[in-house]
Design goal:
Number of helices: 8
CATH class of the largest domain: Mainly Alpha
Distance between the termini: 106 Å
Shape: rod-shaped
CATH topology of the largest domain: A middle domain of Talin 1
Largest sheet: 6 strands, antiparallel
Strand order of the largest sheet: 3-2-1-8-7-4
Structural class: alpha+beta
Strand content: 5-15%
Number of domains: 2
Oligomer: single chain
């Protein structure tokens, strides 16, 4: 399946899901880095920080024990001496507890802790000898032991503790550097992923936008072309997505407009055809023509304009109540009697009485005979059209045609009927006036 055939909703969903996946990846990486930072912080707390605190407590307890040993020499009573011993024992227990914590949390160079603990254990016999001499009130011997072996041991213990402090500080610096490195790597990774997500989002947005706006521009161009009356403009969009559906709807609308335009054009052509027929017929009726001349001109024009093979035009004379043949086209009456029709006689007379058209289709007898030098033609379709003004019948036309009469024939004849009646009524009026003037002149 081509990308452009994927529905726009699916494309947008795909782009959105891509951004969601990238965001989840950024979140997971951030969680992973946060976990590493958390572990590093926990190490820093359990090792350098807590160990440093315990080493500080050990050094404080050692100093307190050392001071208590010095206070033995100045004790004035047994009670005071006993309290000093209790203080020494308490600080000693606290020191062992702190050593146990340091030994538990010191991951590297544990032998340094053990060496410091051994030195501390080695200090206890020296303290006990000093305390023993003090109880025996051998103060000089006690001070001598303290100044020689006691101070030397305390100094050695201080060196061991200083070494532990230095190693702990170094471990703390290493852990802090590791945490700093993890933080910097996390920032770089996050920046890279954010930039990549932005680039991917921009690419998806641009690609999706182009795939949508390009066909829309084609549709807009086609609409502009159609707005300039070019309904046959071809839309070059072939897709199966929503844009394709829009293009198909556009083509359906275009086809409908084209069909309506053709229909409107046909109607306009039909109207123009009728209007042209009326105008040209009016040209045939211009001037002060006699009835016979006018009748021949009218029947000839109508038969030729409507492609009718034969036609006659009768004028109704109210005084005698009969119709008289005044104009013909491709027809010769067989005798003089055929030139006159009584009111109500035959289809012609009946049409005048009814004041309505009469149409015959596919007749199988010789109603009309159209003569020529080559052949005798018998029309199969007859149309009789009376023309009148203000419900007053002036005359009637009779047509014979080989093919069926079309609706446009009836429309044109209906459109010109009243004008024909007025024209013939005027011609008859002029004829009567002329006859009246002649009679008056004779008198």
């Amino acid at each position: 399946m081509r990308f452009k055939d994927i529905r726009i909703a699916y494309r947008l969903s795909l782009g959105f899901m891509s951004l969601v996946v990238i965001t989840i990846m950024i979140g997971l990486m951030a969680l992973q880095k946060m976990k590493l930072l958390s572990q590093q912080t926990e190490k820093m707390y359990k090792q350098p920080l807590s160990i440093s605190n315990e080493i500080r407590d050990i050094q404080s307890n050692i100093n307190a024990i050392q001071q208590s040993v010095k206070d033995i020499f100045t004790a004035n009573s047994g009670t005071e001496f006993h309290e000093i011993l209790l203080s020494i024992n308490k600080n000693e227990l606290n020191t062992y507890s702190a050593f146990n914590i340091v030994l538990e949390r010191f991951d590297e160079d544990r032998h340094l802790v053990i060496d410091a603990l051994d030195v501390f254990n080695g200090w206890k016999p020296i303290r006990e000898r000093i305390i023993k001499y003090a109880k025996m009130r051998k103060i000089d011997k006690a001070k001598k032991v303290m100044k020689t072996r006691g101070y030397q041991h305390v100094e050695l213990l201080g060196e061991k503790m200083e070494l532990l402090t230095s190693v702990t500080r170094k471990n703390g610096e290493n852990l802090f550097s590791g945490a700093q490195r993890i933080y910097e790597e996390s920032m770089v990774s996050m920046f890279f992923l954010v930039v990549m997500s932005l680039l991917i989002g921009i690419i998806i947005t641009i690609f999706t936008t182009i795939s949508i706006t390009g066909p829309l521009k084609n549709i807009i161009h086609s609409l502009n072309v159609i707005s300039h009356d070019n309904l046959e403009a071809e839309l070059q969009v072939e897709r199966n997505d929503e844009i394709g559906q829009l293009a198909n709807a556009f083509r359906a609308m275009q086809a409908n407009l084209l069909q309506k335009a053709k229909k409107a054009k046909k109607i306009d052509e039909h109207r123009n055809w009728i209007k042209t027929g009326q105008t040209e017929l009016y040209e045939q009726m211009r001037g002060n023509q006699e009835v016979k001349e006018l009748a021949n001109n009218v029947i000839r024009f109508i038969c030729e304009y409507l492609n009718i093979q034969i036609g006659t035009l009768y004028i109704f004379y109210e005084r005698t109540r009969h119709l008289k043949l005044r104009g013909t086209y491709s027809f010769t009456p067989p005798n003089d009697k055929a030139k006159f029709v009584k009111l109500g006689e035959g289809l012609l007379g009946q049409a005048v009485v009814d004041k309505a058209n009469i149409k015959l289709k596919d007749i199988d007898y010789k109603y009309f005979v159209c003569n020529s030098s080559l052949a005798e033609i018998v029309p199969r379709n007859i149309l009789i059209v009376p023309f009148m003004v203000e419900e007053k019948v002036i005359g009637v036309m009779e047509f014979g045609k080989l093919k069926h009469f079309e609706s446009q024939d009836n429309e044109l004849l209906a459109a010109v009927a009243e004008n024909l009646a007025i024209a013939f009524d005027s011609s008859l009026m002029r004829y009567r006036n002329i006859r009246l003037k002649k009679k008056q002149n004779l008198i």
